[in-house]
Each structure stands twice: as C-alpha cells, then as structure tokens.
Write a sequence for this structure.
C-alpha cells in the first residue's frame, strides 16, 4: 500500500552550504510564509534543530509494514543521491522529516517528507540544504526572516469522540481490568476538536509553543504540530539515547508547593511503578541493538510549565548498523504510550479508547542520509484537519495503573492539553 519510488525517481540531488553567523538567529522565524500548512516541517529545541518547507520527495505508507517500507524508501532515495555537503555532521546533507501512525490499524497515512529547503542550526553553526529530484544541483535558497504569522482569532473547543465524563468511565473500566489481573498498565487517550476564526498557521503554533516550552522539541510534520518532552530515540554517530517519561503531576503555579509535589512524585509508588514499566520497555528494545547500555537506577523529575514528569535518560552504543528510524520502529510503542504487556494493552486501547490516534503517540522526527536522527513521541500535539484549514484535533493521554483514580486522570489529561490550548488562544 506504500508508494515506493522507481530507481529513476530515487535520484535525490542535494546541496548543503554553511550560513554566516547572524543569518539564522531564530530557526522558526525563517520558515517561508508562503509554505502551505502541510509542507511546514520543524524539529527545534532551544533554538537548535531543523526546519523545512517545500517538497523534494514524499512517502506515505500504511499498515504493519509502514516502518520497514519507510526505511526502504529512504535507503533507495539516498543510495542514488548526489550530495554536495560542505558542512558535515548530523542533520546536514539531505534530510527527511517523518511522522508515523501510532497503530498499524490506523486508516491514516504515515509520512516521510523531504523538504525542498531545510535550514539547520547546532551549537552556534547554521546551514541551509536545498534538495530536489532530478539531474542538476538545486539553486541555493536565500534565507531570511519571513513575515510573522497571523493569530487564529477566537477558538471554539468541542469534545472528540468521547466527552470527559465518558472517557472517565473508560478509565474506570481500565482500572477494573488491571485490578482483576488482566494487565499491569494501559495508556488511554482522549481528543478535543478546536475550530478557529481564521485559518490555522503551524508557524503561529510553533512559535507560541517554543516560547513557553523550552524543555521540549517543537515539531511539525504533514500537519501534525506540537511540543513533545519525550525523546523516543536519538542516534548520533553510533550513540543512541532515549528520554523516557511516565508518572505525572500537575503544576499548581506556586513554585514552593510545586517543589514539594516534585518530591512526592519522586517517592510515589504508583508513579514509580508506572515509570519502571516504561523504562524497562525502552531498555529491553534498545538493548537488542546495543553492545553496552547505561540505564540509571532512579528517575529525575522533569519540570515543564504545565506538568512534571518522572524521567530517565537511557543510552547505548549501537552495534548492529540500525538507523534512527529502525531504532524508533523497535521502540514503538513503548509502555509510555501503550502499556504493559504491550499486546494486551494495545487490545484494551482498541476496545476502550474509541479514537483513531492517527499519528498522535507515534514516532515523529527526522533522519539524515547516514541514518542519524531524532525521533520523539508525538505528544502535546494536534492534527490539522485535511478538509478544514481552521480545525485541529488535540490529543492527550494518561498511563493507567492499579492505583489510578479516574477523576485525577481527567485532570491530568486536561493539563496535557494546555500547551496546545494556550498556543491556540494566545493573543500575541
Ligand atoms: C500519553 C501522554 O503522555 C505520556 C504519559 C505520561 C503519564 O501517564 O504519566 C507521561 C508522559 C508521556 O509518556 C500524552 O501526553 O498524551
């Protein structure tokens, strides 16, 4: 069902040039104002990362083989490529952004997208890559600040397939199944639909998200826009690392009280148990590709403006030639977004959630021709509607374990909607 290129079509031609200091102070500001919403690509954290626009090549895939098909497509595109790269290092040369569906059963497509123009920044160095499919090197792009995006105006929010009250009942049912011994943990998600007065611009949302959530990766791929705090896997010249999050507490706005809450989160047996399942699932999957691993014994508390999470950074030295997308495929779905055991949790999600997650909770990120890249989990995000430029569906989910209280989980999901809700309703 996937669109694989023919050998002829696979000839990527790409040129990467260094940009002088001062040209790119703000990656998000250089994204072309003319780019249609679905063409805007972003992966930016604290000013570093990659943005892109335009289309050199595109892959869409479905079903259980979507990761394999995407990996084969990128290998074919890179095998025939002509690459002029005067910068070097991860994220230079031709780059594909990607966003994969959470579930193999989703009717929605998984995407790889090679922008015509990519601008990157890392440790004070900036570059521009132009890519095309054909014979001749593409012309270079003049990188400048684009016109500011417009605010979306008044926003109306409506329930997704389930109201909060209906979702609470689904959570209660999940707790019953867990107490009955059917499984240990399941992650259930809910959706909200937002409709704006004016067309929604990813550039507006990205900017607002980056301003407030500097501990996250601010992403956009094929209309999926968000700010994720969770790094599924980064591969940088053989070193793989992953930031596992699970176990959450809402912030109150009172810093002293929040510190006390952070201390209680680090001691909460319910949250530590939920966290341990997620770390195990990532460490086991990554361990299959790595000669040596570093798995810290206890988590730290990651502070975000809306919530705090238990977090563990896992690392390993990859010894089997896997690319970052191969690693993302074997890590997905982790217990942070699915549950434990995986197959039972996945079945319960299908039974109770009443939602097509689409690409929410799937891997989102980028990869270069060497296979290095970064894939986060698409959380704290929204999917722009295909048929309505003013509509976006927002998603939030919570890990449910034996000690979970359904009303607390509703409040936690509300807190997880906040980054996108605030970005939509910000006035400037
Ligand atoms: C599923 C989401 O978040 C995940 C669930 C968490 C939890 O239940 O504690 C914490 C971080 C994420 O791994 C989401 O934000 O939608």
């Amino acid at each position: 069902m996937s669109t694989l290129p023919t050998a002829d079509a696979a000839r990527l031609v790409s040129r990467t040039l260094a940009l002088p200091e001062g040209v790119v102070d703000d990656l998000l500001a250089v994204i072309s104002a003319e780019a249609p919403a679905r063409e805007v690509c972003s992966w930016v954290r604290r000013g570093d990362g990659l943005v892109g626009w335009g289309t050199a090549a595109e892959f869409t895939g479905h079903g259980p083989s979507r990761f394999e098909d995407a990996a084969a497509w990128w290998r074919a595109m890179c095998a025939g490529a002509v690459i002029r790269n005067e910068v070097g290092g991860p994220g230079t040369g031709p780059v594909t952004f990607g966003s994969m569906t959470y579930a193999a059963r989703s009717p929605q497509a998984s995407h790889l997208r090679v922008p015509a123009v990519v601008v990157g920044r890392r440790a004070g160095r900036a570059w521009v890559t132009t890519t095309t499919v054909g014979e001749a090197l593409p012309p270079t792009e003049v990188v400048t600040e684009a016109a500011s995006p417009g605010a979306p105006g008044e926003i109306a929010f409506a329930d997704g397939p389930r109201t909060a009250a209906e979702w609470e009942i689904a959570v209660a049912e999940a707790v019953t199944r867990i107490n009955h011994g059917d499984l240990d943990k399941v992650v259930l998600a809910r959706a909200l639909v937002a409709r704006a007065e004016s067309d929604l611009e990813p550039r507006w949302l990205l900017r607002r998200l980056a301003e407030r959530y500097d501990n996250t990766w601010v992403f956009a791929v094929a209309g999926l826009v968000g700010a994720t705090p969770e790094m599924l896997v980064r591969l940088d010249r053989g070193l793989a690392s992953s930031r596992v999050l699970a176990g959450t507490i809402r912030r109150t706005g009172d810093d002293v009280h929040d510190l006390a809450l952070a201390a209680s989160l680090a001691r909460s047996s319910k949250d530590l148990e939920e966290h341990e399942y997620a770390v195990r699932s990532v460490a086991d999957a990554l361990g299959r590709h790595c000669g040596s691993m570093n798995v810290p014994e206890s988590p730290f508390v990651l502070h975000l403006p809306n919530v705090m999470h238990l977090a563990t950074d896992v690392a390993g030295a990859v010894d089997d030639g896997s690319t970052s997308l191969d690693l993302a495929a074997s890590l997905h779905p982790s217990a942070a977004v699915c549950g434990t055991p995986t197959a039972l949790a996945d079945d319960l999600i299908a039974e109770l959630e009443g939602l097509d997650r689409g690409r929410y909770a799937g891997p989102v990120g980028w990869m270069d021709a060497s296979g290095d890249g970064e894939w986060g989990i698409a959380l704290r995000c929204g999917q722009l509607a295909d048929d309505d430029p003013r509509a976006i569906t927002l998603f939030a989910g919570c890990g449910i374990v034996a000690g979970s209280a359904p009303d607390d989980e509703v409040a936690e999901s509300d807190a997880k909607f906040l980054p996108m809700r605030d970005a939509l309703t910000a006035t400037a």
